[in-house]
């Protein structure tokens, strides 16, 4: 990735925004973590859908970024489970995929995804997607955690 684009971004564009990154690729998790941490985000990572569901209740992310193609529980299935939970139904979910077909994007919409980024993505694309939902995600953080967030 071009580091000159990172320098032009506001280093604290999203102070305190909680982002859950779900991807089986360590490289994608590290890249997104690095970019978003520099922008002031608080990051939690998960290696697959099951790991994400185990962490989401305690972390209470403002935004979730999920890869579609993962072992065990894919991004579509994970998104659908998150969106069917009352506590997280309004939490924006951004899907990541190397596929860019209209079918894949439509399937993402069906399960409740808020946006869709195609890999490889630029820092501008990532920041743009986060920026579109940062204010709506902050509302989810203000919800009382009294509702159960169990996904089992």
TrEMBL record:
GO terms, biological process: phosphorelay signal transduction system
Residues in Response regulatory domain copies: 18-134
Superkingdom of origin organism: Bacteria
Keyword vocabulary terms for this entry: Phosphoprotein, Two-component regulatory system
Sequence positions bearing 4-aspartylphosphate: 67
Keyword presence, Phosphoprotein: yes
Pfam families for the chain: Response_reg (PF00072)
Membrane-spanning parts: none
Regions annotated as coiled coil: none
Protein name: Pilus assembly protein PilG
Lineage: Bacteria, Pseudomonadati, Pseudomonadota, Gammaproteobacteria, Chromatiales
């Amino acid at each position: 990735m071009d580091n000159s684009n990172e320098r032009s971004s506001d280093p604290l564009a999203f102070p305190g925004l909680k982002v859950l990154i779900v991807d089986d690729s360590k490289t994608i998790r590290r890249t997104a973590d690095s970019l978003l941490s520099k922008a002031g985000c608080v990051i939690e990572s998960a290696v697959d859908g099951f790991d994400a569901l185990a962490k989401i209740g305690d972390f209470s992310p403002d935004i979730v970024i999920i890869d579609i193609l993962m072992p065990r529980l894919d991004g579509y299935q994970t998104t659908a489970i998150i969106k069917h939970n009352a506590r997280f139904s309004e939490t924006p979910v951004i899907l990541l995929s190397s596929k860019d077909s209209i079918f894949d994007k439509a399937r993402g919409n069906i399960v409740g995804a808020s946006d869709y980024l195609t890999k490889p993505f630029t820092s501008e694309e990532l920041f743009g997607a986060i920026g579109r939902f940062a204010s709506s995600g902050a509302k989810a953080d203000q919800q009382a955690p009294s509702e159960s967030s169990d996904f089992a």
